[in-house]
Amino acid sequence: MSAYAVPAPEIVSIPVLGCAERFPVRRIYCVGRNYAAHVREMGGDERDQPVFFQKPRDAIVQNGSTVPYPALTEDLQYEIELVLAVGRGGMNIPHRTAAENVYGYAAGIDLTRRDLQLQAKKEGSPWDIAKAFDRSAPITAIRPLDGAALPASGAISLAVNGVTKQSADLAEMIWSCAEIIATLSTGDRLEPGDLIYTGTPAGVGPVQPGDRIVGHIDGLPELEITIGEKG
Ligand code: MN
Fold first, then answer.
1. Which CATH superfamily includes the segment(s) 13-230?
2. How many angstroms does the Cα of residue 18 sit away from the middle of ligand 1?
3. For 111-168, how does the pLDDT look when each residue is reduced to its tens digit (9 = 90+)?
4. Which partner from 12, 16, 195, 231 sits 20 to 30 angstroms from 47, CA to CA?
5. CB-based contacts of 33: which residues, under 8 Å, 6+ apart?
6. Gap from CA of 85 to ligand 1 centroid (Å)
């Protein structure tokens, strides 16, 4: 065994409700265009196929944190999303048995540098700079599924400084949790530790330093972050 040439990266992990053990994060997958009203507000067509992209695991932000306003953008936006946590790996997972691959679920915010995303869309460039930046993935503790069905309905909402900006129901997702897992696993093998942000409903918008964001999904802790000064 040789030592590492530079300090090894830390394991990123998330608390689990009712459990002292933590959930270790391997990959963060995200789904774009999964609520019709949001597709329309972004100028798309709801019959467009959802898209997949990734964030780096160290983009995770623990609940209750302050997130410094990121560099390179004048239009930082929130997107409240249901997040699935993969507990059992698999490739070509059938949607009928997808729940067996899910350890639990959480509430997350897909922070987005919207101006850079719009530019990337226009140029046909990758979305990484708009989506996969430092501290772009706040998330709550995970609620274990414990044999229950995958979440298919329930309120999902987000407020900025106490004003509701997003308010929808998980039942409005175009692709269900099981369908997302089935489709993702046709291209890459899912593994324990993977997170899947499942897309955001309508009402996305900008935030400024000092803003307090509170996300809510039924059955989960509130997700609270504050936007800090640029830095
Ligand atoms: Mn999103």
1. Fumarylacetoacetase-like, C-terminal domain (3.90.850.10)
2. 28
3. 999 999 999 999 999 999 999 999 999 999 999 999 999 999 999 999 999 999 999 9
4. 195
5. 39, 42, 44, 46, 48, 49, 50, 51, 174, 199
6. 16
